[in-house]
Design brief:
127 residues; alpha/beta; 4-stranded mixed beta sheet; 8 strands
Amino acid sequence: MKNRLIHFAIHTEDLERAKGFYGEVFNWGFRAYGPSDFAQISDEDSENGELIGALQSRTYSPVEGNVLGFECTIGVENVDEVIAKVEQSGGKVVMPRTAIPHVGWIAKFLDTEGNLVCAMETDPNAS
């Protein structure tokens, strides 16, 4: 597929807090890389996890003010479980489980760093 997302960065105020949040909610793994305020994100918490993005300090932003994130959607098996984990891990649900007819269920939340993130459960019967 052309023009597919190949990397994303999530800007953070507190790298360890963000790692704890995303590790708990999505079971992502993290690898040290370069400076102490930057970590690579892998798609699973194992040595074999594929690199998919980075957590990085807001100081790396080339623009004034806080970058509050690129709205990305994460495919999940059960959006209700993710909502519960978001709330337990210090995030805030800003759009509850909502049907996208014939596509699936989506929820939107703010992570512990104030970034907007979407979780999507595919379900062609959603309505």
